[in-house]
């Protein structure tokens, strides 16, 4: 297939994948039930991210990285937070290039995200050179590539990311081959399967490695039900909720949204969804 066709296909894929909302945040161990995260901790930054306070989350992640420049989780959290800041500012504009040019904050946010992705990938690759079996570095190598794709092919509307997509997909496959129970890799892989199956033109899905939405949903149900770190389960829960909404399975989506809203009551997407589809008082 000509390269330009590949770019168009991957552009459609990435734009659709970006719509998964906040199902892509990083993971850490949750503090004991009922205890608030320590101020300035990575858990506190994570909570700000999932409640939708992306600027706060990005700032906290950057401050934490200053103390530990090789902490890949801080690169991933910050790039995710910067991505969702840009997405929120661009909104649903059809002319994304015009919207970006009219956004005073967006160029600086874009530059910061790209710099962080570049630096984070360099850290991940150095770790893999030293220890090729480093599962954490392999996962973040894939996830940082995905954040780059979502930036350019989502809110920026740029058709790019073929190489990044394949490095991301292959990284997730490598992690799961070694550790099939890796929750975050299962979530990322499920989204790839779902989007390729549901958004790609018939006959082109093989170019992106194939997809299966039923398997994707089943995988997320299992990931959201396992005993795992709090934010791992949270990411799986948000991903499952988003797929349930896409499939218009509103009864199950309401149940999941209510569960998520218990932990993240300030998340605006959950508030709007439950106002529209939740039980009426």
Explain this structure to me?
The structure is a single chain. With 281 residues, the protein is an all-alpha fold. It has one domain (3-277): Serine Threonine Protein Phosphatase 5, Tetratricopeptide repeat (Alpha Horseshoe), CATH 1.25.40. Helix content is 70%, strand content 0%. The protein has 13 helices and no strands. The longest helix is centred in the middle third of the chain and has 25 residues, at 106-130. It is globular, with a radius of gyration of 18 Å. The model is unreliable at 1-35 (pLDDT under 50).
DSSP helical segment count? 13
Q: Tell how many strands the DSSP assignment holds.
A: 0
Shape annotation: globular
CATH class category: Mainly Alpha
CATH architecture: Alpha Horseshoe
Structural class by SSE content: mainly alpha
- Poorly predicted regions are 1-35
Note the run of SSEs as H and E: HHHHHHHHHHHHH
Q: CATH superfamily membership, which one?
A: Tetratricopeptide repeat domain
Instruction: Report the major sheet.
Output: none
Do you know the CATH topology?
Answer: Serine Threonine Protein Phosphatase 5, Tetratricopeptide repeat
> Could you say how many structural domains there are in total?
1
Q: Helicity, in percent?
A: 55-70%
Please report which band the strand proportion falls in: under 5%, 5-15%, 15-25%, 25-35%, 35-45% or over 45%.
under 5%
What is the radius of gyration computed over CA atoms, rounded to a whole number of angstroms?
A: 18 Å
Distance between the termini: 55 Å
What is the typical, i.e. mean, pLDDT?
85
